[in-house]
Specification:
Structural class: alpha/beta
Low-confidence stretches: 36-41
Largest sheet: 5 strands, mixed
Shape: globular
Radius of gyration: 15 Å
CATH class: Alpha Beta
Strand content: 15-25%
Mean pLDDT: 86
Amino acid sequence: MSHFHAVVWMDHAEAHVLHFTPDQSESKVIHAAGKARHIHHRKGSIGAGKAPEDLQYFKKVIDSLEGAGQILLTGPANEKTEFKKHLDTHAKAVSSRIVAVETSDHPTDGELLKQARKFFVATGRMHVVR
């Protein structure tokens, strides 16, 4: 099934990707390879104390967005922003379909779908324009 709209909720450990219409949806959960990505920077140590991008994780999320015409990107912390930067450099076609990047806590898939539908209706984008 292919839908025009999609929402991605992601953090460093997993991404929930939902493709939807006003009355249908399908979802997929993508897990990052290594969930322990927190790095603590100690005084006097070399490096920024930041985990490197998980490129395989990003690729899986990108692949899951095939067919989506408009995408809402959301999540609780920095991973969504790092993903958007990655798209801007390495997947410009997908990046151009991101209509907004918003901060969101940890919703259920049902809450995420409701939030995404409300967003697309409020912005006048819920109708399909091809």
